[in-house]
Design a protein that fits this description.
The complex is a heterodimer. Chain A is an alpha/beta fold. Chain A contains nine helices and 13 strands. An eight-stranded parallel β-barrel of chain A has the order 1-2-3-4-7-9-10-13. In chain A, a hairpin with a 2-residue loop joins strand 5 and strand 6 (about 95-100). Chain A is globular, with a radius of gyration of 18 Å. Chain A starts with a strand and ends with a helix. The mean pLDDT of chain A is about 95. In chain B, helix 2 (about 25-45) packs across helix 4 (about 55-70) and helix 3 (about 50-55) packs across helix 4. The chains are: A alpha/beta, B mainly alpha.
Chain lengths: ~260, ~160
């Protein structure tokens, strides 16, 4: 299965032109901004997957129960094929950061994240997919790698991994981690979905802006994984769009390269 | 490429929007910039005429001040910046340069909210001053009263701000 993320600007495109994708990935936090007609139209034409950018999985604050109750209602209503969040925190005391913020990978935080993932899965009554991050800092308090941290979470909660290959590639380019090391350590049995995207240079760093076509090594890694295991793939594009025609060509080219 | 940072230091820098550690921890700047950029873009969506009038650089400086004092308290971007007009109005009390802008930000917000019930009162002389602002073509109908109540539909039909 191959899908793309939904962009506000492209709503008419998905609804009227129906691009050659098998499902659409919706940002959970955007759903309320789509009216019922839009949501029903998208759902009639495609299966949906739900992707959250504010579950706050890595935080020590209490979970926002109202947020998860609202999400559960939407899950019941639109029946997404997958539900995913990030291995990050996005909220601190009275402040929303609008970013996927990292935290130290250690036993103390592992215990916290495991409890939260179990609670989220209970609230949503489903299996959660957790996405790896792109990082721009190292923490003194980290004792584990992200890949081993994800392995532990999956083992203890039954959650799965949404493997963002672009994030690993960006971490390699920023000399934070290495793709071969990460993929060698990650338990691939837990990987239930792939994300593909492209970043861009911003100062000294390559930043995960979803603003370019995926790099060849990212597509090759996706191809290798998919050959062994058939899992859904999403091409994420949020910035630097050209034309809808070029977007359609990109989608087709990625499909040809990875399947 | 990056020295290891203590989590507490990282966290405090984010909450306080403090760039002082970014020389030692360059990656921190990516997160700080992303936060500021996201919220500045949202303020631009809500206050576009104000941005045109003060210019992009001044807009960034003023909004940075606002962002530092008013952290985002909602997961929804659309909730951010609804107090920016009050922030500019407060500035106008102590800074004469902002006197006319306080009406512009009200107008910007009214336009964004499409609020039929919101009434913004403009002293007539403000209209004349606006018409002299650089880059602004301001057209308005005749108004004999000292204070003209402007509601949404009046703004759309009779009040035209063209940049």
């Amino acid at each position: 299965m191959f899908g793309v993320n939904v962009r506000h600007e492209y709503l008419d495109f998905y609804q009227k032109l129906k691009p050659n994708v098998d499902f659409l990935e919706l940002i959970v936090e955007n759903i309320n901004s789509y009216n019922d007609d839009v949501m029903n139209s998208l759902r009639e034409n495609y299966p949906l997957s739900f992707h959250s950018v504010s579950m706050n999985i890595g935080s020590s604050l209490d979970l926002d129960i109202d947020f998860f109750k609202a999400l559960k209602k939407n899950i019941d209503k639109f029946q997404p094929v997958l539900i995913s969040g990030h291995l990050s925190f996005e909220q601190s005391h009275n402040m929303f950061h609008h970013d996927l913020l990292p935290f130290p990978m250690n036993q103390k935080n592992l215990k916290n994240v495991v409890q939260r993932v179990l609670q989220i899965q209970s609230l949503l009554d489903c299996e959660l997919l957790i996405e790896n991050l792109s990082y721009y800092v190292h923490f003194e308090e980290s004792e584990m790698t992200e890949s081993s941290f994800l392995n532990e979470i999956c083992e203890k909660t039954g959650a799965k991994v949404l493997l963002d290959l672009n994030n690993i590639d960006i971490n390699e380019m920023n000399k934070i981690d290495e793709m071969d090391r990460f993929l060698g350590e990650l338990n691939m049995e837990n990987v239930a979905q792939l994300h593909l995207a492209g970043g861009e240079k911003n100062g000294e760093f390559i930043v995960d802006t979803h603003a370019s076509f995926p790099k060849e090594n990212v597509l090759k890694a996706a191809h290798t994984i998919i050959k062994k295991k058939s899992i859904p793939v999403v091409y994420e594009r949020d910035n630097n769009f050209n034309t809808k025609n070029e977007y359609v060509k990109d989608i087709q080219l990625i499909r040809e390269k990875i399947f | 490429m990056n020295n290891k940072v203590k989590f507490l230091s990282f966290y405090q820098s984010l909450v306080e929007l403090d760039y002082k550690n970014t020389t030692e921890h360059k990656g921190l700047k990516v997160y700080l910039n992303n936060y500021v950029y996201s919220l500045t873009e949202e303020l631009l969506v809500k206050y576009p005429i104000f941005e045109k009038l003060v210019g992009a650089d001044n807009f960034k400086a003023i909004t940075f001040d606002y962002i530092k004092k008013h952290p985002s308290d909602s997961r929804d971007f659309e909730d951010y910046g609804l107090l920016f007009n009050e922030f500019v109005e407060a500035k106008a009390v102590v800074d004469n340069d902002f006197f006319f802008y306080k009406y512009i930000v009200d107008l910007d917000l009214m336009y964004y909210l499409k609020n039929d019930n919101l009434i913004v009162q403009f002293p007539c002389f403000v209209f004349k001053q606006w018409s002299q602002l650089k880059g602004l073509i301001f057209e308005y109908g005749s108004a004999d009263e000292d204070v003209v109540p402007i509601v949404w539909d009046v703004k759309v039909e009779n009040l035209r701000l063209r940049l």
